[in-house]
User: Which sequence fits this backbone?
């Protein structure tokens, strides 16, 4: 057993896209679980509210600004986290954007932006952090996929990126498992966030109408909330999840795939 795997050892976690929504909920849950958390988003200032919430609750958190699709920025961010909090051994790749459009109207820029943040960003963050994990003999990598990976009208870019993350997750699990590192993906269904509220606005609907329509198609008869995803991530990041790797967990209120 390595020193970092002894019970009670405080692990260092990084959550990308953590200034709001699912990322914020995940960061707060991991902090409540006893991790020191790097709250990372594009603009460091937007992370401060989440950091303050964590510290008020007695946790430890650090605001970090970085563009996850920029290799130099990722390297600097992880170096800063390692220096100020310690070597990170839990990584949640949550940063994401949408640029929805039907295929015939989708621009190359809309495609590239989504690919760069979701796929390139997750690759760069994982590659940068895995060295700390292999050295510690322990690692938990959790990538945020989506039910959109199964196909979703108007989201060719987002669906392709989220499906790509599933293949990335399974490959990382195969490559890094022997070092005590697991890699899994959580694929949310309809979650109540600013992003889904923006979707309603684009559709010309009130948000509560979109939620009611979505809930009608969900077996548990409600839409999800960010804490639903945070609970799943908490399990996959835990000591007890060491024999769960390369899996895609659909957190969508019913069976998906």
Assistant:
């Amino acid at each position: 057993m390595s020193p970092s795997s002894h019970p009670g050892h405080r692990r260092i976690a990084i959550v990308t896209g953590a200034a709001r929504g699912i990322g914020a909920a995940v960061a707060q849950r991991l902090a409540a679980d006893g991790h020191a958390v790097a709250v990372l988003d594009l603009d460091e200032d937007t992370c401060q509210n989440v950091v303050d919430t964590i510290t008020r609750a007695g946790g430890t958190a650090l605001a970090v600004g970085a563009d996850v699709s920029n290799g130099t920025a990722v390297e600097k961010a992880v170096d800063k986290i390692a220096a100020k909090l310690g070597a990170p051994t839990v990584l949640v790749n949550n940063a994401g954007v949408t640029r929805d459009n039907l295929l015939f109207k989708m621009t190359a820029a809309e495609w590239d932006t989504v690919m760069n943040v979701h796929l390139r960003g997750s690759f760069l963050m994982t590659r940068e952090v895995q060295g700390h994990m292999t050295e510690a003999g322990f690692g938990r990598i959790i990538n945020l996929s989506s039910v959109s990976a199964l196909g979703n009208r108007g989201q060719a870019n987002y669906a392709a990126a989220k499906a790509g993350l599933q293949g990335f997750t399974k490959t990382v699990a195969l490559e890094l498992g022997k070092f005590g590192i697991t890699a899994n993906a959580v694929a949310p269904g309809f979650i109540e966030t600013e992003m889904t509220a923006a979707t309603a606005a684009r559709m010309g609907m009130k948000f509560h109408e979109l939620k009611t329509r979505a809930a009608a198609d969900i077996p548990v008869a409600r839409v999800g909330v960010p804490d639903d995803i945070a609970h799943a991530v908490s399990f996959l990041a835990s000591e007890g999840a060491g024999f769960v790797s390369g899996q895609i967990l659909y957190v969508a209120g019913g069976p998906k795939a």
In short: The chain has two domains: 9-189+227-243, 190-223. The first helix runs from residue 21 to 32. Strands lie at 12-16, 36-41, 60-65, 88-93, 139-144, 181-188, 248-251.
